[in-house]
Write a structure and sequence with these properties.
Elements (H helix, E strand, L loop, with lengths): L3 E5 L3 H13 L3 E5 L2 H10 L4 E4 L8 H10 L8 E5 L4 H9 L4 E4 L5 H14 L9 E4 L7 H7 L15 E6 L8 E6 L6
Parallel strand pairs: 1-2, 1-3, 3-4, 4-5
Antiparallel strand pairs: 6-7, 7-8
């Protein structure tokens, strides 16, 4: 699985340099020239990480961090700040707004930024496209009778309409081993 990085930088030269480096590292890269463009991109795409400049026209990086922090759909996306500013109060402000790290452009090599990106992404739980699986359990399947009895399922029939129940399995990729949570569902009653 290739990770997607949203690169938010208003300098065309720096943006192109980091975009090239990220592409060489086999990342998918989406770019934005300012914070407002970044927010528009985030309304359509969900990157795995945001590489965020602070000083930009239209909307600065601090406001982007505030949007990330207050939107439940975006709050889990790590944002790595790289800025020309390096004063302690600016670093502290960015970190307090939820930044996962902070680099000063003038003293940081791109390879260090890439290493930090890899480090952050290696700690992120794997997310898969598949949301769930629906399985019909046959009465004669191994342990089907035991499962039916354990959950009072009336031989996998809906209590209301007697239609066959489906087992919905939802993968949980936050665990190291394969793990699913499940529930029984009647497709006719929608319950």
């Amino acid at each position: 699985m290739r990770y997607k990085i949203l690169l938010v930088e208003d300098s065309p030269v720096i943006q192109q340099m980091y975009k090239s480096k990220l592409l060489l590292e086999d990342f998918d890269v989406v770019t934005a020239n300012n914070g407002m463009e970044a927010v528009k991109v985030l309304s359509k795409e969900k990157p795995d990480l945001i590489l965020l400049d602070l000083m930009m026209p239209v909307m600065d990086g601090y406001k982007v961090l505030q949007v990330l922090k207050t939107d439940p759909k975006l709050s889990k996306i790590p944002a790595l700040v790289f800025s020309a500013k390096g004063q302690p109060e600016e670093v502290e402000r960015a970190l307090s707004l939820g930044a996962s790290g902070y680099f000063v452009k003038a003293i940081t090599k791109p390879v260090e930024v890439i290493q930090k990106i890899h480090s952050i992404l290696s700690q992120k739980p794997r997310v898969e496209e598949s949301k769930s699986y629906m399985i019909e359990i046959k009465d004669d399947a191994y342990d089907a009778k035991k499962l039916s009895a354990d959950f009072n399922l009336n031989d996998f029939k809906c209590i209301k309409c007697q239609h066959n129940l489906l087992l919905i399995l939802v993968p949980d990729f936050s665990k190291e081993t394969t793990f699913f949570s499940g529930k029984f569902f009647c497709p006719r009653c929608n319950k």
